[in-house]
């Protein structure tokens, strides 16, 4: 008998509705403590005939050892046969549903390395079939993304100059599109409680995984770099105060707002998945280590301004916003310091000893800015703001 993990599969609308379910009275998480679930954070088809798309097939094949899974060989063969077609539809034809399917698949693959150690999905972490699929998707994805940021990168000589590269990071982080400004103004001045709930739940998946992305960056390059990342992790963990850790603060905020942590991402578009996947594409590939550090640096520079807009909106809606939503207040206080420290204690010392790493750091930073911008566009679309912008 197959031991397929039991997860109820739902479409994007159903997932969003589930995400907005209020915490049952008496069941709210008042400690913020979370323990890894044996069930993975993505839906698993319960029968082989339900495994139709790339992401569904990968999820099904991850659910158990293949000799116990009905039709596993047939599904695996179909997956390998159809993968080039799906990648072409996604990255050549730019079909939104194909892009969503590809990024859902990458999300599932990265979650394997972050799942409960006793979950059956972990048995496949280094399986050749999974690594082959992951490598093909990552290669096609980066070949699609890199040409789009070339004009935004510093020159080779600028990237090798510590002060010039740090200045480039600051300049890029401070740039705002019309959509960026409109979205932040919307949060600050107009968003309703329900719209803020959607915003917070959209952020949930990455907020819970950010410390994992940070942990992957702690693999050794130099003592100076490791020390600064460890200092950042100390802040993420609440500086030794359990209930001040950022993930616990986020969980406590959900409880105070009457929301449940989503079992699966609530995203119905490929852009949020891509932004999330970028951290783990870099973090789980040693060859992308410097890109990963560049990608992690950018949010420390642009997030304080974003969080100030969030806090202003929350204070407009809640008289006790600082109590309910300490998570965002905490981030304003710590990230102002983080940004300058990532430049002076991560970017600058790397360039001083390894100038060739500069362009890699810049690529990671530029890709993160693109991901942030696309995420803002996704949220602006959810809130009906794009029509307003187009008429201005």
Report on this model:
66% of the residues lie in helices and 0% in strands. It is mostly helical and 392 residues long. It folds into 2 domains: 12-23 and 36-149, no CATH class; 155-390, Heme Oxygenase, Chain A (Up-down Bundle), CATH 1.20.910.10. Residues 1-28 have low confidence and may be disordered. Pfam families: Haem_oxygenas_2.
Short note summarizing the structure:
This protein is mainly α and 392 residues long. The protein has helices spanning 12-19, 54-62, 72-91, 96-112, 128-149, 156-159, 162-174, 178-189, 193-216, 223-236, 246-256, 270-283, 289-317, 321-324, 326-353, 358-382, 385-390.
Strand content: under 5%
Whole-number radius of gyration? 21 Å
* Number of β-strand runs: 0
Please report the first level of CATH classification, the CATH class of the largest domain.
Answer: Mainly Alpha
Class of secondary structure makeup: mainly alpha
Shape call:
globular
**What is the CATH homology-level superfamily of the largest domain?**
Heme oxygenase-like
- Name the poorly predicted regions: 1-28
* Portion in helices: 55-70%
Number of domains as seen in the coordinates: 2
What is the averaged pLDDT score?
Answer: 91
CATH topology of the largest domain: Heme Oxygenase, Chain A
Order of helices and strands: HHHHHHHHHHHHHHHHH
Sheet with the most strands?
Answer: none
What is the terminal-to-terminal distance?
61 Å
Number of helical segments with 4 or more residues: 17
**CATH architecture assignment of the largest domain:** Up-down Bundle
């Amino acid at each position: 008998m197959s031991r397929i993990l039991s997860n109820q599969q739902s479409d994007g609308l159903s997932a969003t509705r589930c995400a907005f379910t209020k915490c049952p009275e008496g069941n709210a998480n008042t400690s913020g403590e979370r323990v890894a679930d044996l069930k993975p954070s993505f839906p698993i088809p319960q029968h082989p005939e339900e495994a139709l798309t790339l992401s569904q097939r990968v999820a099904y094949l991850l659910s158990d050892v293949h000799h116990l899974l009905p039709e596993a060989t047939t599904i695996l063969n179909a997956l390998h046969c159809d993968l080039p077609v799906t990648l072409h539809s996604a990255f050549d034809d730019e079909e939104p549903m194909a892009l969503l399917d590809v990024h859902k698949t990458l999300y599932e693959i990265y979650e394997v390395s972050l799942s409960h150690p006793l979950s059956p999905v972990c048995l496949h972490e280094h399986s050749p079939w999974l690594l082959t699929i992951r490598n093909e998707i990552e290669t096609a994805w980066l070949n699609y993304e890199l040409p789009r940021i070339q004009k935004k990168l510093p020159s080779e000589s600028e990237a090798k100059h510590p002060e010039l590269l740090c200045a480039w990071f600051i300049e890029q982080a401070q740039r705002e599109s019309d959509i960026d400004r409109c979205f932040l103004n919307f949060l600050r001045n107009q968003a309703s409680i329900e719209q803020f709930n959607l915003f917070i739940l959209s952020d949930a998946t990455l907020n819970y995984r950010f410390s994992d992305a940070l942990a992957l960056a702690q693999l050794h390059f130099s003592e100076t770099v490791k020390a600064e990342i460890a200092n950042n992790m100390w802040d993420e963990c609440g500086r030794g105060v359990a209930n001040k850790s950022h993930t616990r603060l986020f969980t406590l905020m959900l409880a105070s707002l009457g929301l449940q942590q989503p079992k699966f991402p609530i995203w119905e578009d490929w852009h949020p998945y891509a932004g999330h996947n970028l951290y783990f594409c870099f973090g789980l590939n040693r060859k992308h280590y410097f890109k990963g550090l560049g990608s992690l640096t950018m949010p420390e520079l642009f997030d304080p301004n974003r969080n100030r807009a969030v806090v202003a909106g929350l204070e407009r809606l809640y008289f006790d916003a600082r109590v309910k939503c300490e998570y965002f207040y905490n981030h304003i206080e710590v990230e102002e310091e983080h940004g300058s420290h990532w430049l002076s204690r991560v970017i600058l010392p790397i360039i001083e000893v390894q100038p060739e790493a500069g362009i890699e750091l810049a690529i990671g930073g530029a890709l993160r800015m693109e991901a942030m911008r696309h995420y803002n566009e996704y949220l602006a679309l959810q809130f009906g703001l794009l029509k307003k912008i187009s008429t201005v």
